Each structure stands twice: as C-alpha cells, then as structure tokens.
Amino acid sequence: MSRPVHGGRHELGQNFLHHTPTIDRIVRLVRETDGPVLEIGAGDGALTKHLAALGRDVLAVDLDEHRVHRLRRRLPSVAVVRADALRVPLDRPVVVGNLPFHLTTPILRRLLADGGWTDAVLLTQWEVARKRAGVGGRTMLTAQTAPWFDFTLHGRVPAAGFRPKPSVDGGLLTVSRRRFPLVDPAERAAYERFVRAVFTGRGRGIAQILPKPRHRAMRAAGIPPTALPRDLTPRQWAALWNG
Rounded to whole angstroms, how far apart are CA atoms 195 and 140? Predict the structure, then answer.
C-alpha cells in the first residue's frame, strides 16, 4: 500500500478511539439530536459504524485517503470523503468528532465562528473540554462565545482508550447553539472586544477592572467585586454587556 499523501497517523495527529463506554456515550448523545450528521476525523470508523446504525444521513470526512477508501467499502450507506476539517463546510445540524489533539483549538474556533450546525459532540483533550465547560474557571474564548453556545462536559476518557496512546486524557464535550441568544448576534464583534478588554484589564477583581458605569450592572447580576473574569457565568457576562 502506498503512503498517504498527508502522512501516516502520527503525522495527522490521529489518536483512534477504542474505548467502548465512550463510543456508547457519544452515540447516545447524538441520538438525542436531530438531523443529518457530519463526522470529523472518521479514521477507522469506530464511531462511523455506530452513527450509521442510527439510520441518519451521515457524512464522514478524513484526511487519510486510504482510510477513506476502506470506509467506503465497509460502510456503503455512509458518504465518506477525503477533506480537511479546517475547510469542510459545517452545514449539517449535528457535528461529531474525535478531534486531532493538535488541531482542537483551531477546529473549535472555526465551529464557534461558522456554519449552520446546532449541536456538536466532540472528543478533545481533557483540559480543553474542562475549560470550555467552565470547570475551574472559564477561558476568554468560552466567555466570548457563551452567549450563543452552551458547553457541557460529559466525562473524562483515559488516554489508554486511544491508539496510539496520547500523553493526556481526553474529554467528552457537547456544544449546543442557544435557541435564544443571551446577546444580540449583531453585537457579537463588539461583545467579544468587551470580554477581551475585561480579561486583559488591570485590577485585582472585576470591580477594579470594569469602568464605574458598569458597576450597577455588576451588582444587579450578583457579581462579587473581587470576582475574576474567569469566575463569571454566561448570564453574568450578558448582564454586564446588556446593562
């Protein structure tokens, strides 16, 4: 067999999932959604075959042309194409992916900025999943996007559940587009700049960072003066902005 034009599994950053409890949980989460499915990084099809069994329209993409050919033979009911996760159109309601760990952040940024999808079920590095869900404090990216998306952590996946075994555990994360945004979508760019200014502002607490005109909104939202930007909930961020 010839070598893939994009390199082998290590060059592609692929860690194939074989942890049965996680596969079952992902399938259950997808079953709770509606509409056609886009699977990013199908690999050897450990998830693909179960997604196909749901009876949904599934489009599976992978960058390795040999794996694409094999999946086409094994799963003729699934549309399998060779495509780059950073370029494939995000135009299906449900996105599923065991994301290449080295591409997690750019893929997430693209998902949160583009496409008409409504639900995403993603396997990422544990720290990324934990931070996006706000466990131990929210990142600036989460705060910037939370008015339009809801992040939920569904568990930790042991590194041994992947082949080859990565150096870190994985985390199962769902992202759902809010039906009713907390901030007007037309204000998104300005809101993101506001969040960045607060996260990078000087001061020991939110009261010192925020300009005084926003202190009334801070108190109304129940935000302690000593709270840090990472401590604020999505609704508190929205209250600061809308107030």
Answer: 7
Burial class (CB in 10 A: 0-12, 13-18, 19+), 57: middle
Count of helices and strands (H, E) across the chain: 10, 9
The tokens for 180 are 């009713």
Mean pLDDT of the chain: 92
Binding residues: 15, 17, 41, 62, 84, 98
Domains and CATH numbers, the chain: 16-177 (3.40.50.150), 185-242 (1.10.8)
- Identify the sign of the CA torsion 45, 49, 54, 60: positive
DSSP tag of 34:
-
- The structure tokens 């020991």 sit at 204
Q: Tell the burial category of 77 from Cβ atoms under 10 Å away from its Cβ (0-12, 13-18, 19+).
A: exposed
pTM of the model: 0.90
CB of 128 within 8 A of CB of 175?
A: no
pLDDT at 7: 40
* Residues that constitute the known binding site for S-adenosyl-L-methionine: 15, 17, 41, 62, 84, 98
| Per-residue pLDDT tens over the stretch 36-46 | 999 999 999 99
